[in-house]
Records
---
Amino acid sequence: MQSIMVKGRLEEYALHPWIFRPRVVRGEAGPGEAVLVYTQRGKFVGSAFYHPTAHIALRLYAREPQPFDYLYLKERLWAADQYRHALFPGEEVYRMVFSEADDLPGLIVDRYGEGLSIQINSLAFEVRREELADALEDLFAPAWIFERSESPARKKEGLSPVETVLRGTLPETHTIVLGGLRFRMPLHAPQKTGFFLDQRLNYQTIARLAEKRRVLDVFSYVGGFTLHALSGGAREVYAVDQSRNALDLLMENVKENRLEPSRVIPFVGDAFDVLKQLQFTRETFDLIVLDPPSFAREKKVVRRALKGYDELHRLVMSLLAPHGLLATFSCSHPLSWEDLLGSLERAARKTGRRFRIRGRFVQSPDHPILLGFPPSEYLRGWLVEALD
Ligand SMILES: C[S@@+](CC[C@H](N)C(=O)[O-])C[C@H]1O[C@@H](n2cnc3c(N)ncnc32)[C@H](O)[C@@H]1O
């Protein structure tokens, strides 16, 4: 393995698995090649994947000298899967690999029962795609392996979007079981493939809170929160999403689970417009879930994202019935807990209502957070209750 020398002291590299280009002082290697990293004083840092041009020059995958061969890849995948088995015994739907948090930088693997869906966000796995598919097939014998890699992170790695079936035949839609509910999810949809597995525990919380409540599920997608609310005994659920396809699947999911379709009112449209319309017609709700797409993938757009949140929070806070609950989420790593809370405070002032903080929501533990690596924490949510 080639050696690469980096600036600074060993402790600086103890936790964070990325090493940026300006830190590299000496050494070269091929695209995605596994290398050994040393400090200028000759201390061993770890084994890493090399990128010859990207700002993230090195992605550490081990803290000992370790070639990244087929056997090692299989070991890492197996260990990641075992971790999930311990978390959710007997379950067949989970995030099997969560990138740096599983020492497989830039790789995401979701298990959806008999099939696997993968995302590649680093050059390291781009050049190992076939090896990866072989390893997954060897270990887990999936019926299909589907790849949809189109995160903006790929651009920074010099990669273009990829959508392909790596193994087997992909069904048009696929049914998974989560929290005792059956969900049909799209595999070819334009905006999203799969399911929001990071909300797993939060779905259960909403189910527990929903009894006898009139619920508004904003950005509902195929109904993760809607169905859990119904199964928890919600009186009625309004589901809002701009995707007709997602709402069609949501209604199918309601029927598939023998929940009453008459208790669901789907709204296809822009959330901002629908919320204004509901405000105009003086609707109120006892429980509102707000789970928008990522508004801020980078620190520099946080301010703009907060403007969007301020408006959404103002609208939903005015739609809350007395003592109603609001569950609000952000899936953008740069948007902090305080950012989201600050937005809630501004909106509460504008609506002239007071609220109590009832709790926080976090990402499901099959998306583990790596200590010292902030990008691995991205899903945050607050539960607040109107005091009047
Ligand atoms: C993070 S997902 C929501 C996930 C969902 N809550 C769940 O648990 O499955 C975001 C959803 O917002 C929808 N969306 C994006 N922009 C929207 C807008 N302006 N108005 C309404 N829906 C929008 C997308 O179609 C997508 O289904």
---
Amino acid sequence: MPARETEAIILKTFPLGEADRVVSFLGRTSGRLRGVAAGARRLKNRFGSTLEILSHVQIWYVERETRELVRIQQAELLDSLHKAQSDYGLSTGLAVISEIAELVLPEHEVSEAMFRLILLCAREIERTGNWELPLSYFAFWTVRLGGWLPRFDRCAACQAAFDAGPAFYDARRAGLFCGKCRRPGMKPLQGEARALAERFTGERLDRIAYDKSMRGCVDELRAAAFAWIELNAERRLTTPELLETA
Ligand SMILES: [Zn+2]
């Protein structure tokens, strides 16, 4: 089979045998694929630093008819996330993006919107040296692109319009709920956090200036989006816990 070529984002890698790596990547024209990078664990190898988490690369691979994994022949770095990848705190932010992308993207399905979203958010973590706003934006847009975003203006149970106060959610039920319909254990999403969601809908991440006064609503909106991702993927996310230690 002839080699194929695509622009790609490396999602995750893990060791295979003594010398190789399995690489999960999101190809712009191939969708999410998994492949083997032979020799990638050797000290001197032709992949260099191209297989780091969320690296933006050009990748060449060969499909093998009978196997699930493609063979990765070559990868070249298109732009660097060196600062974020080599910093523990920032790399946990990249790991959250990677885990969510793995969870929500079906294999072999092209998603230009998710490709651009991941690229934008990873670059902003690198550029600003902070994951707080980029991760909120990423999680919110993942929910929106997935079609899982509840109504932000009225209660999912009784249909009452929200005022400026908190609405409530959890990872067990779809929707946002009013104070009367909230169940025990539900978390609040304040009016400011819902207003931030409006901004995310209309403005590009790299045009939103982040200051620390936004932190509370940025955190709240991110937590709500994580809950809706978990609800729809029917899986718990494991990497957000690491953020607290970063
Ligand atoms: Zn209600």
